[in-house]
Amino acid sequence: MESNAVLLESKSSPINLLNEMHQLRLLGHLCDVTVSVEYQGVRAEFVAHKAVLAATSKFFKEVFLNEKGMDGPRTNVFLNEVQVADFASFLEFVYTAKVEVEEDRVQRMLEIAEKLKCLDLSETCFQLKKQMLESVLLELQNFSESQNSEEESSTQPSILLESKAAAVAEADQADCPLDPPDSPADRPSNRVSPEMPGTKPKEKT
User: CATH number, domain at 132?
Assistant: First the structure.
């Protein structure tokens, strides 16, 4: 009787494999390629493993598959117009799947990824640049909204003051009319008018 097939899959194996290859590279063990990088007079050499570089970079894959003979125990590859710091970051990324760089170097890392045809690094840089752009746009939007709210808050007090002043003026007019009923002009007078007949001056005889 045949038994059903089961899947044996390790979630940690890819990470462990990368970590082990990274340690081997740092120690210089089993490395079979030396990459010489030079930029504006600054030069450095990096040892690595062909299999790792070929698996992560189509550029190195083409170089290694097309080489006719080995130059001794290690293959030498020369790269011009690539900064030393950028290639060091590139190596760290392909061996660990992560690397920390300054924000202003993201564009340079994208350029080296395209130069070396490293799809994983290219996509990572592209996504990071997209997030950075969205963050900047969000900050600009928040700044614009805060400016608008400040302008509105600065105009609202003057409107309130004007409405309050109008209300006070109306209240004053209601409490103090121009011709109040208790004014002397409206009160009945006890004095005799000078034109009344009793007060007319006597005629001279």
Answer: 3.30.710.10
